[in-house]
Amino acid sequence: IHSPPQKPAFFESLPVREHHEDFIRQCVDVLVKEAVFEGTNRNNRVLNWKDPEELKRLMDFGLRRAPESHEQLLKILKDVVGYSVKTGHPYFVNQLFSAVDPYGLVAQWATDALNPSVYTYEVSPVFVLMEEVVLKEMRQIVGFEGGKGDGIFCPGGSLANGYAISCARYRFLPDVKAKGLHALPRLVLFTSEDAHYSIKKLSSFLGIGTDNVYLIRTDSRGRMDVSHLVQEIERSLGEGAAPFMVSATAGTTVIGAFDPITEIADVCEKYKLWLHVDAAWGGGALVSSKHRSLLKGIERADSVTWNPHKLLTAPQQCSTLLLRHEGILAEAHSTNAAYLFQKDKFYDTKYDTGDKHIQCGRRADVLKFWYMWKAKGTSGLEKHINKVFENSKYFTDSIRHREGFEMVIEEPECTNVCFWYVPPSLRGQKESRDYKERLHRVAPKIKERMMKEGCMMVTYQAQKELPNFFRIVFQSSGLEKADMVHFVEEIERLGAD
Ligand code: ABU
């Protein structure tokens, strides 16, 4: 078998280099113009909806033996942009992330241009040191003494929660690292029924089992009921199981509730349980002296998940796990691969941080956040948080007494606002037998209309016995009061019948 003749390496010769340079510049122009600026212009659509079968016809997804020309590749890139949802658009209020931060974007592109893997100092000197600084600063903001402890940037908050479970389990029974599940009694952890699904998912992934995640009731505002937590801990002890961890939530996914961390910390202290706080969503409030009291008691946590890609609008993904226990990530996860973490290197190998994570290759997600932080200062981050809380309050006040709108939670604690929209045809019929069923169908219908028009995106869900309601999320400080009015009027227009 003969190999085909080799083409010159990517940037090996000048003509090839010029050829690619020109192509890269054209692509960047397309991205800057169409994805960034036009994609976030209020006069343009958030999305250009196509059914899956139609999109398969419209876009050239196929892979072929023959290469495509640059001309064709540029067209394909334009299609990718054209048919993608513009999550940086001001009217994308669908998810717990949105907006385009210019500094974050540039740094994200720099990360991709440099293509590092943050596991050793020799490969990622800048990013290893940058992580050290950012994680320490974040721990300080959380309130860990002197910013001491451990931490890691993870691919998403779910994985950060998984790391927390793994560290808590290791701390409870270090034998688990070598002996695995055989070394363990039946472990039980506790979280609220409104907590993020990753707690169950990662408990299953780690061999703890979803049945051993005891769900604690929430009160009418979506906060963990601490007396029920105590009952459930006692129940697990009565069953001969081994409770080892509580995962509190600071900013629940749907309602935006903050669990009472101080009271939960007291319970954890009494029963000697690891306290994790999933502040993936609400963590951003910590940078605001006005709003950080929402997370009172977080400084007593053993571990904290905090995603700067959420309330602080760093580009996806930017998730951290912060721990008060120095060195615990490496203790729980290291395996000393000789081909990466040689101890006889010529520099201080404590900067080879990669053995503490369960990934091998790992993106430098730190850069975008650090660069944004540099550009705005901590005061700029605080201003951003205050503005999004103001926006959320303004929106809430606009709909609270408006005909056709009904709040799910009267006073939302975070910047996700949950509400029902009752269209004119359903008003005044609360007592009718099928009212709930009909109301349940309203949000999906309005969502369908807004997606098909591409005018805005806001999500909906049912929760427990409640029929479908909208959840609008504010985390872009680029939004103004006029945008809040626009959202209200758009929902009225889309649900006018
Ligand atoms: N962790 C993210 C939850 C998904 C969302 O509602 O945006």
TrEMBL record:
GO BP field: carboxylic acid metabolic process
Descriptive protein name: Cysteine sulfinic acid decarboxylase
GO molecular function: carboxy-lyase activity; pyridoxal phosphate binding
Oligomer status and interactors: Homodimer.
Protein family per UniProt: Belongs to the group II decarboxylase family.
Listed Pfam families: Pyridoxal_deC (PF00282)
InterPro entries per UniProt: PyrdxlP-dep_de-COase, PyrdxlP-dep_Trfase, PyrdxlP-dep_Trfase_major
Keywords: Decarboxylase, Lyase, Pyridoxal phosphate
UniProt keyword annotation of DNA-binding present: no
Cofactors named for this entry: pyridoxal 5'-phosphate
Modified sites of kind N6-(pyridoxal phosphate)lysine: K310
GO cellular component: cytoplasm
Keyword Lyase annotated: yes
